[in-house]
Design goal:
Helix content: 40-55%
Shape: globular
Distance between the termini: 60 Å
Strand order of the largest sheet: 3-6-9-12-14-15
Structural class: alpha/beta
Strand content: 5-15%
CATH architecture of the largest domain: 3 Solenoid
Largest sheet: 6 strands, mixed
């Protein structure tokens, strides 16, 4: 139990740059509170204590502004950022490492008693205000843009925007490679895709491609050195910290010398 809570806290640090301390997260993050209470209500639901489970779920909504039906199945490291207005239906299934933002609905489109809510694969990101409706599958690593309305299956790694939701980028080898390089240096492109007419995103992707090429060459040289008996490449590189990349606001505010 405590390991799961520790995982939940760590995933907040990974995905929310505003998070400063574990105490702050535990006391002031309604998304974390909602997940902890849902686990309790889901346990009661599975054990057959339906009314008590629904009552705890109602208290959860009253406390956090997040409504998760106790019948919903939630994976590990599920992060709800801000959270107000989030609704997760009874037959919804959420995989591991999923992130959703405020105003998101994982809802149904019929009154059928069976499966009527979405299934989200591992690593899916759903933007603020998006509506994902019906017994559809949002495959692993897909991204749903803010305010999109999605009623059809989304393939792995794709990005969907608009009303109705349309795919503007499909996951491919280049996208996976760039994401791996971005994760390596601690950079998140927030779902920006190469198909978007954004010169900044194109520049970022060009830099990631170049870094990948440099990494490949360095690995080849290290392999050659090891074969020659050198242990030079066994030395670890210093960790790249996000705070080292931040601009010095005071320096920016100072007038430039002429």
């Amino acid at each position: 139990m405590f390991e799961r809570v520790k995982e939940d806290i760590n995933c907040v640090f990974e995905r929310d740059p505003a998070a400063r301390t574990a105490f702050e997260i535990v006391t002031n993050y309604p998304g974390l509170h909602a997940i902890l209470l849902h686990r309790a209500s889901h346990f009661l639901w599975v054990k057959g204590w339906k009314w008590l489970a629904r009552t705890l779920s109602t208290f959860n909504r009253w406390l956090t502004g997040i409504e998760i039906h106790p019948g919903a199945t939630i994976g590990r490291r599920f992060f709800i950022d801000h959270g107000m207005g989030v609704v997760v239906g009874e037959t919804a299934e959420v995989g591991d490492d999923v992130t959703i933002y405020h105003g998101v609905t994982l809802g149904g489109t019929s009154w059928d008693k069976g499966k009527r809510h979405p299934t989200l694969g591992n690593g899916v990101v759903v933007g603020a205000g998006a509506k994902v409706l019906g017994p559809i599958v949002i495959a692993q690593g897909a991204r749903i843009g803010s305010n999109a309305v999605v009623t059809k299956d989304v393939p792995a790694g794709a990005t969907v925007v608009g009303i109705p939701g349309r795919i503007i980028a499909k996951g491919d080898k280049d996208a996976a490679r760039r994401k791996a390089m971005a994760d390596k240096i601690g950079f998140d492109a927030y779902g920006v895709t190469q198909d978007m007419p954004d010169p900044i995103s194109k520049s970022i992707f060009a830099i990631l491609d170049h870094m990948h090429a440099v990494d490949t060459k360095i690995e080849g040289m290290c392999d050659a050195l090891k074969k020659m008996g050198s242990d030079y490449c066994d030395q670890e590189l210093p960790e790249l910290k996000c705070e080292d990349l931040e601009l010095d606001e005071q320096a920016e505010a100072r007038p430039k010398e002429r």
